[in-house]
Design brief:
The chain is an alpha/beta fold. The chain has one domain: NAD(P)-binding Rossmann-like Domain (Rossmann fold), CATH 3.40.50. About 35% of the residues lie in helices and about 20% in strands. It contains seven helices and ten strands. The chain has an eight-stranded mixed β-sheet, sandwiched between helices. It has a two-stranded antiparallel sheet with strand order 6-7. Strand 4, helix 4 and strand 5 form a beta-alpha-beta unit. The protein is globular, with a radius of gyration of 16 Å. The structure holds NADP nicotinamide-adenine-dinucleotide phosphate (NAP). The site of NADP nicotinamide-adenine-dinucleotide phosphate has 23 residues, from helix 1.
Length: about 210
């Protein structure tokens, strides 16, 4: 599969490594392609603009600054996302003094904003509740952690669940893209634990079941 990863930060790089490790062809999108030349050589991926990367991907991952993402989608060209599965890894974080907050939150979410920006695409929120170092082959003493996902399209969620499972995760589907409100809040639970405990060692959520 050809995968277009929009975003050049730790998240974009970790996703690119994950897809490449499972035999997929990857292009990473950025507004500044030269800065990724070393990374491209190291992992053997292509680099493009956000527009080129959206056009390249049969599956697309959004790994850009959360609140900038609807604008990045708009600038890349919405039609390039049409009909495709889009994994939304972003969180609409607001940075200031102290821990970040979310905007939007409560009655809307970044996931819903992104889906509204590309109504013909199948947006699935995933990977936003865990730090990038754990995305691929998470090895934790408590066993495989749980990837919580949300989206409106059942087939798209199956496709994203398959990616998560192939990378070593259990998957919990929590419903439509509107449930991104709660997944983005889960991200803050993850971040606030780090701030309060000053413990940024890799940590992830796991759903424990009685049966
Ligand atoms: N860090 C984590 O472990 C983690 C885990 C789960 C989810 N997330 C979410 O995943 C997304 C990516 O996170 P990240 O840590 O990799 O990096 P980031 O700094 O949040 O995002 C970097 C990417 O966003 C683009 N961007 C566009 N407008 C921007 C602006 N105004 N300021 C800064 N960057 C802008 C950058 O473009 P250029 O390529 O042109 O520089 C770059 O591709 C975020 O939404 C984050 O909340 C992060």
């Amino acid at each position: 599969m050809k995968v277009g990863v929009l975003g050049s930060g730790d998240v974009g790089k970790s996703l690119a490594r994950g897809f490449i490790s499972r035999g997929h062809e990857v292009m990473v999108g950025t507004s500044d392609p030269p800065k990724l030349a070393d990374f491209a050589r190291e992992v053997n991926c292509q680099i493009g603009s956000f527009a080129e990367t959206a056009a390249f991907g049969e599956m697309i991952a959004l790994a850009t600054r959360g609140r900038a993402t609807p604008h990045i989608i708009e600038d890349a060209g919405k039609q390039k996302f049409s009909g495709k599965v889009v994994i939304d890894v972003t969180n609409p974080l607001v940075f200031g003094e102290g821990p970040p907050t979310l905007d939007p939150s409560g009655t809307d979410s970044g996931g819903e904003q992104n889906q509204r920006a590309i109504p013909d695409a199948k947006v699935v929120k995933a990977f936003n509740t865990v730090g990038a170092p754990l995305f691929v082959d998470p090895k934790l003493p408590g066993g495989p952690p749980t990837m919580f996902i949300a989206g409106d399209d059942a087939d798209a969620k199956r496709a994203v669940a398959d990616v998560c499972k192939a990378w070593g995760w259990e998957v919990a589907d929590i419903g439509p893209i509107a449930s991104a409100r709660y997944l983005e809040a889960m991200c803050l639970a993850w971040v606030l634990y780090g701030f309060v405990s000053n413990d940024w060692s890799p940590h992830a959520f796991k759903m424990l079941k009685a049966t």
